[in-house]
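re the bet — no i am not wrong, look at it urself. input seq straight from the record:
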Amino acid sequence: MERTARGRYEITSAGGEQVRAFIPAPLPPKPPLVPDGSLQQALESAGLALGRLDSIATLLPDKALFLYTYVRKEAVLSSEIEGTQSSLSDLLLFEIDEAPGVPSDDVVEVSNHVAALEHGLDRLREGFPLSNRLIREVHNVLMRRGRGSTQTPGEFRRSQNWIGGTRPGNAAFVPPPHTAVPDCMSALERFLHNETDGLPILLRAGLAHVQFETIHPFLDGNGRVGRLLITLLLCHYGALREPLLYLSLYFKRHRTVYYDLLNQVRRTGNWEAWLAFFLEGVKVIAESAVLAAERLSRMFQNDREQIEKNARRRAGSALRVHEALKARPILSLTEGSRSTGLSFQATASAMKLLASHGIAREITGKRRGRLFVYDQYLAILDEGSEVE
C-alpha cells in the first residue's frame, strides 16, 4: 500500500553542499496496517516458528552452551555485513588469548558486538526499559573499543551522515538532519513503549527496525544496533526467553532485496512489502535455528555414547573433557585442565582419545601450547553462513 504520510524532506547543508534529508513520519504507519490474507498467513507462520524456537530452548540439555556459540555466530555475521573480516573461529581464539595472526581490529569489533548484546539483555533482565538510554548504552559498548571508538560511542550524532555514495550530494539516502534526531528517536521510543495499540510483537519489531535504520541516529554502528534492536525487542516483550533469533544471515543472503524494501518504505510507505519479507526471514531463520539445535543435541549424545563405548576405564576423564569442549569449541589443554579439574596430563590423555575418534582435532601442529577444535560443532553452526 502506498501512503502519503511516510515522511518529509528537509533541505540541509552537509559537506559544503545542499542535500535533501529525509525525516520519517512517526510510527505506527498512517493509514494503519491492515494485514491482508497473505500477510496474516506470514505473521502466523512466523509466530509458530518463533514459538517452536522459544520452546526448544527449554528442552536443550545444554542451552547455555548453544547460546554461547550461537550468539557469537550472529556477532560474526552482523559484523560481516559492515565489512568486517573475521570468523567464528577467530573470535573463539581471541577470547582465549590464543590468536596469533588474527586481524585484531576485526575481532575486537565482533567481540564488542557480543558484549553489546549481553549488556542490553542484562539491563532488560534487571527491569530497565527498552529505551533510547538503553540503545545508547548498547551503542557505547559496541563502539568503545577498536575502529569505532572515535565515533562518539553512546551519543546521538551531531552532524549529518549519509548512506551510500562518497559524499552527501551523491548518497543513496540521506537520513534526518542531526537536529531532528532527538525528536525522531523520542517518537520511536514512544512507539516501542506502546502496548495498547494491539500491534503484534513481530510487526512492531519489523516496523521499529526500519524506522531506526531510517533515522540512522549514530555516526557509525547503526546497522549492527538496528539488528540488535530486533532481538532485544523480542526478548523484552517475551516472544523469546533467550536471544535465539538473529536475522543477519537472512539480510546478508538477500541484501539487495533488503535495501530495496527499506527504500520502498521511505519512498512510498509500502510497509506491507517490507513486513512480508521480514516475517519470511523470521520463519526461515527460526526454523534453521531449531534444526541446528536438534542436530547439535544429537551430535553431543552420539559422541558421548562413542566415548562411553570405546574409552572404558578412561571414559570419566574423556567425558569431562568432552563437556569442556562443548562449552568452548576451541580449547587449550591448560584451559581444559582448569575447567575440568583434571591434571594437565590427564586432560592431554583424554583429548588424545577424543582426537583418535574424530571428535577433537589439534590445530596448531605444535608440541606446546596446543589447541583443539570440536570440528563438527563449528561446522553445523557455520552451515549456510558463506554468502556470495
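see?? The mean pLDDT is 87. told u. also The domain at 299-382 is CATH 1.10.10.10 (Arc Repressor Mutant, subunit A). so pay up
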